[in-house]
Amino acid sequence: MSWHVLGAGSLGGLWAARLFRGGEPVRLILRDRTRLAQYRAGGGLRLTEGDTTSLYPLPAETPEAGNPIRRLILACKSYDAEDAIASVAARLEPEAEVLLLQNGLGSQDAVAARVPRARCLRASTTEGAFRETDFHVVAAGAGQIWIGDPLGTQASPPWLETLANLSFPVRWTDDIDARLWRKLAINCAINPLTVLYRCRNGELGQHRAEVAALCNELVVLLEAMDLAPAAQGLQQEVEAVIAATANNRSSMLQDVDRGQRTEVSYLLGHALPIAERLRLAVPRLTDLQQRLQALLAERGLPVD
Ligand code: NAP
Asked: Which atom of ligand 1 is nearest to the CA of 102?
């Protein structure tokens, strides 16, 4: 049974290369014919791990290709996910499984609504990768991948073991949305501030009180949503992440520096309307979003 990976960017490239070299049948789905021609001209996908760069000649196609899709890994940004799934929806087999790698929350529901017959699983990953150039991915940090079914404790798919055997650091969870919320909260406490202060994560150590105040509001929100386990020890974990990734530039800061759209709508932009619906006062988070949006607008970037 073949895997399809839609999006040959950082994470999609990392996943596809690891599947391919493990002997799994895998095909890339690229945006359009122009991207496909560029990919073919380079001879395949390059993956750098440590000092080693390997070229993997994975087959690739466009969304319009005719072959049916049984197992799809959706590896685009959150804001592209709905259009991307729509472009291949007609190709999904009735029993299709779709694994969503998007960070934050909001896009997963939109995707699932587009393909109601497919089983949409969600992943939350702390692995890191970036694009050196088009179709050349650098593995930038070990981590953990949690996979789960948002509809509850349904059995894990048999291919989870296949991924584990290929050295994917995967674990199954019965509560993937709590994992995604926890990561969303950590991202909300760190990423926007790194953009506003134009700093690496570690420099947020100088803004401890501000980080703590954001964590307090995020804890109130998570607890009000009955996600108390995701709220537990949030501030301590945020401080630990800041220390452990002191030299890193957050993904949001990298997006802004590259002049690219951020995923803010799926982070703060997802949390704030829920706080409003629950009538929770979150002045620090609201102020953070307003300052971030002002900066994005100043740079000519989308504010959502
Ligand atoms: P990325 O490097 O920008 O890659 C996204 C890829 O999706 C690009 O290659 C893009 O193609 C492709 N794409 C977008 N729309 C498409 C469409 N309709 N059809 C085909 N391809 C399409 O992004 P990323 O860093 O891999 O991030 C993907 C998700 O993973 C994000 O939600 C991110 O937050 C999350 N994540 C990433 C990391 C990481 O370390 N990179 C870690 C944790 C979580 P083009 O090249 O043609 O634009």
From this structure: 32
Would the pLDDT of 153 be above 80? no
Instruction: Quote the mean pLDDT of the chain.
Output: 97
Tell me if 35 CB under 6 Å of ligand 1.
yes
Task: Return the ligand 1 atom nearest residue 260 CA.
Answer: 3
pLDDT digits (tens, 9 = 90+) for 84-139: 999 999 999 999 999 999 999 999 999 999 999 999 999 999 999 999 999 999 99
Residue 183 appears among annotated catalytic residues: yes
Mutation pick for ligand 1 pocket among 5, 6, 11 (CB with most ligand atoms within 8 Å): 11
Residue 1 — pLDDT band, cuts 50, 70, 90? confident
Does any ligand 1 atom lie closer than 6 A to the CB of residue 128?
Answer: yes
Is 90 exceeded by the pLDDT of residue 152?
Answer: no
Q: How far is the CA of 81 from the centre of ligand 1 (A)?
A: 9
Q: Give 30-52 pLDDT, tens digit per residue.
A: 999 999 999 999 999 999 999 99
Q: Name which residue sits closest to atom 11 of ligand 1, judged by CA.
A: 7
What's the CA gap between 122 and 237, in Å, rounded? 22
φ, ψ of residue 273 to 5 degrees: the values are -65, -30
- Beta carbon of 102 within 6 Å of any ligand 1 atom: yes
Annotated catalytic residue, options 114, 122, 183, 270: 183
Model confidence, pTM: 0.97
User: Which pLDDT score, from 0 to 100, does residue 66 have?
Assistant: 87
